[in-house]
Amino acid sequence: MLATILKRSPVLLGTAALLAATVLTGPATAQGAPSYSKYTALGDSYAAGAGIPDLSGGACLRSNHNFGTVVAASLGVTDYSDVTCAGAKVLDLTAPQVSPVPQLDAVDSDTDLVTLGIGGNDLSASPLGVVEVILECILVSGSDPLGAPCHNQYADRHFDFDTLSWAYENDALEAAVTATAPQLASALQAIHTKAPGAKIVLVGYPSVVPDNEWTCFARQPLAIGDVAYLRGIITRLNGMLASTAAANGTTYVDTATPTKGHDVCSDQPWIEGLIPGSPTVPFHPNAAGENAMAKAVLAALSH
């Protein structure tokens, strides 16, 4: 699906925006970061930089401008392995996905740095994950542009007479986040077992939608209430990633804060919307976004 979107959208094939983004944001730096000799990057499409030229990995849509590649270059790592892949779920770390071997096979006892960006695709049954959720919200947005029709689909809505407002129960996306936590914990422990001396970094998701949902009005085909709903789900997902990392001897990197103000509805997006203006797939970081995520990782490594 992602490959089809990429092939059919001519704007994704340009390189001018990619070069401009790199100039505007500047290169990530590694001042104060320790030295690493063998670095492995794991994760999904946000970690792969899916759709940003130049691409490799076939259907994995892996970019040589993703945050892992920027981090490796900034650290001067000579032995760098990137097995990130679009569509990856947590369980794909230990099972073959597009490639014939699991991502974790790229980690061994000599690995001393691992970055992992994963969890968003576990929000839905299909490999599109969080993108499927956003597309579903787009499809129903016209039924109530100022309301939250997508939220109504993913949760049971009822009127609370005590608060005189609508309340929601049994939210399917919240349940998916909760269910992913123990799977992620097992994956992190597996990485620790395979590379006991490695620094392991779990990278969170950027600010896909804004804090002020009204800035999306007429910019993206999302109902106003659903922008707030999606922001809450992504915040909940990042919170789960952070707490699971802390409980499993892993460093969590917040990329939502450094990308605030550069969401899909901003004037200078680092995460592109339904029709990308810079090369990437819809609702994913462009080159500037990946560079911002790399800077956040490098900052965490320097502490």
Give structural notes.
The protein is an alpha/beta fold. The chain has helices at residues 2-8, 16-25, 45-48, 67-75, 130-140, 149-154, 172-194, 224-247, 287-301, and strands spanning 38-43, 55-56, 62-63, 79-82, 113-117, 156-160, 165-169, 199-203, 251-253. α2 packs parallel to α9 (287-301), α4 (67-75) packs across α9 and α7 runs parallel beside α8. Residues 1-27 have low confidence and may be disordered.
List keywords for this structure.
single chain, about 300 residues, alpha/beta, five-stranded parallel beta sheet, two-stranded antiparallel ribbon, disordered N terminus
Overall 3D shape: globular
Count of distinct strands: 9
Computed over alpha carbons, the radius of gyration is 19 Å
Measure the end-to-end span: 39 Å
What's the short version?
36% of the residues lie in helices and 12% in strands. By secondary structure, it is α/β, with parallel strands linked by helices.
